[in-house]
Amino acid sequence: MTEKTISKHLANIEKQFSMHNPVLQQATKVFHELDQIEFELGLLENDETTARKSTWWPIVSFIGSSASAKAQFLNQILSSTGQAVNIYASGHKFTVLQHTPQATLATLPGTALDVDHRLPFYQISQQIEQSVKGEGNKINSYLELKTLNSARLKNRLFIDTPDFNGGAANAVQTLLMQHVVALSDLVVIFTSIFESDPVALEPLLADIKTHQDSNKFIYVIDHSSITVTAERAQASIASWQKRLGDLGLNTGQFLVLSNLDGVTQNQALIELDQRLANIDNDRSYRVLHCLEKAIRDVNDVIMPEVELSITRWKERCNFSTLIIIGFLVTLMLFAEISMGVVDLLLDPIIGPITLVVLIAFLTPIHIMMSKAHAKSFIRELDVRQKQLLLTENLAGLFEQSLSFWRMLLPINHPVGQDKKHRAQLRRLHERTKDLVQKLNDNFSVDHRFEAESSSYASLDLQQD
User: Fold this and answer.
1) pLDDT in tens, 167-198
2) DSSP 168
3) What is the DSSP secondary structure assignment for residue 135, as one 8-state letter?
4) Which residues of 376-406 are buried (b: 16+ CB within 10 A; e: fewer)?
5) Is the pTM of this model over 0.85?
6) CATH 3.40.50.300 in the chain, residues?
7) Nearest to residue 220, comparing CAs of 197, 199, 194?
8) How far out from the chain centre does Cα 395 lie?
9) Domain 54-277, second-level architecture
């Protein structure tokens, strides 16, 4: 077995979390073991890793309409040490905001996001091209990256989404919004967008409903232009809870912006900071979910796809071989009519020799036809891989399954679909669930109490 070297990306992640997040550090080891399995099966190259399927940065996204105070609120969030920040531009792009120690704000094109596996839009151009032909090359029209010096951006990323002006979004914007909502650990939504055209709102509502049980949504009620008392703020929250409930949105936290000497506004920032303080835990659960899904996908998605291709490939190869055999049988019939060869084939000496010669003739022909047919299936698997948005090389596993005996024998399952690899994947899945349990234990009073009781009991035994 060839040992896969740990990828540079995964090694950097392990080093990053070695001090302050032991759960994610252990997760990197599970990722590497999964990489080893997929490397053996031809699904990954030596320098690749399944850890690239999800960004390891905590992500906060902001969604609002053109009439909302989203830009003003975002600028206030990002302002630090009394220095005002103004990141608002045209409002028509998905803007990733990243921390930099430099004093000046820098704007980078969307291609910077598309090629960097550490950032949330890695290889998104491929998905855009799948959705709308020709738009994948226009990534800079939809995305940009801004770097600025803000304390609230340290160790996390913000995504400012385009202004939701009520008009129908195009297919690319809908895809990118779906991607952002799914990937974010926290989504801040200004309630004014729910006053938009219902038809235009439907895709976003569907995205929110899909993920609303994840407790990632904060709804901001913008009353920044008026004075709002605490009682009126509660009444406004109750009203919006009912309105969103009628739309099928039943979970989420509410914040109210007000101009009451900045008091309510500051309170909104305090509550947001409380959520931001917990976002590292949200990110940890998201990464472990990604790891669990990557493990399951080997058996649930990758193996069935390749097995289907192998089955169809064998059917095509066998059909081609049968055509040749049929042609030989036809020749024998003509030979029997003219020469009476059947008696020769029934001869105890000539018959077996003829059979051996026939097998020796058909075997290399079958192998050559199998390899020729395999090329078209490899191309199909490359296309299918992009359709399924997989990083694993489906064609690589298919090619691993093209051994000599597999071409001749009726074996339809891919290499690796056996008890050994299923047991390995099952162990990795169990280890991932153990890591989730460790995360849960960080918030479990009972767990800490049991640990303390155990230590006290051990101390008592020593004293006795």
Assistant:
1) 556 889 999 999 999 999 999 999 988 888 88
2) P
3) -
4) ebbebbeebbeeeebbbbbbbbbbbbbeeeb
5) no
6) 54-277
7) 194
8) 20
9) 3-Layer(aba) Sandwich (3.40)
